[in-house]
Amino acid sequence: MSRVTARRKTVRLSPAGRVERPDTLAVEEPLEIRVDGQSLSVTMRTPGNDIDLVHGFLLGENIIGTADDIVTARYCAGADSEGRNTYNVLDVRLRDPVPLHPRNLVTTGGCGLCGKSALDEVRTHTRFPLPPSVPAVGTEVLTRMPGLLREGQKLFDATGGLHAAGLFATDGTLLALREDIGRHNAVDKVIGWALRENRIPAHDLVLVVSSRASFELVQKAVMAGIPILAAVSAPSALAVDLAVESGSTLLGFVRGESMNIYSGENRVT
């Protein structure tokens, strides 16, 4: 398996002078996702937890609803210039074939969707709409979560260049944490973990991200039935619109002892 970090030469300039030294960087490589042999998407990701990533991605795309919908998920043979397997092509075989709409673009941090049509599509196609009543979470628990997430970011400690996503129980227990060069991939990885652990729909979990809350991240939470998304930075306007439309709770700037509530205040006590 590819390494998640790499060493590169760097020159550091500071008031103390000029120093040449190696630096530890996050690895970024493409992962081609194939479904029943057909190429669906290519995402730039940090290698590791690829099976979780693909499960979460396919759930967010409404291609699967349970882990049992996938029969096998296997790396395809693909070699670099030295004949080594790159582990950058993963083929998923579905129990029941579904129509696919391949993405002919490399997936980046942008959502690729916009406006009212995007809101309508997510609201219509989620398999796990939120029930009338889901557990509320106290502010003192919510404000502890970003710190716990940060403490678990071992790759960020080494590189300073990775996003993180974590799934928490409503009592503040960290259940799963994943890091990736792309914040959307980190979310797919923790949602894929939850799917494989039979925790979807995740009506009793909180999703915490170390980044801003884009439309795409709210979309993924809604598709997984996660009622609360907390971000350490700002949401986008479209992310707030989707959270309001879907009845989910969206928190931003969750730092220290404060937070902004953009929707779903009833779940915060």
UniProtKB/TrEMBL annotation:
Organism domain of life: Bacteria
Keyword Oxidoreductase in annotation: no
Keyword Lyase: no
Subcellular location: Cytoplasm
Segments passing through the bilayer: none
Pfam families in UniProt: FdhD-NarQ (PF02634)
SUPFAM superfamilies cross-referenced by the UniProt entry: Cytidine deaminase-like (SSF53927)
Sorted UniProt keywords: Cytoplasm, Molybdenum cofactor biosynthesis
Active site: 111
Main localization category: cytoplasm
Gene Ontology cellular-component terms listed: cytoplasm
Family recorded in the similarity comment: Belongs to the FdhD family.
Function: Required for formate dehydrogenase (FDH) activity. Acts as a sulfur carrier protein that transfers sulfur from IscS to the molybdenum cofactor prior to its insertion into FDH.
Entry protein name: Sulfur carrier protein FdhD
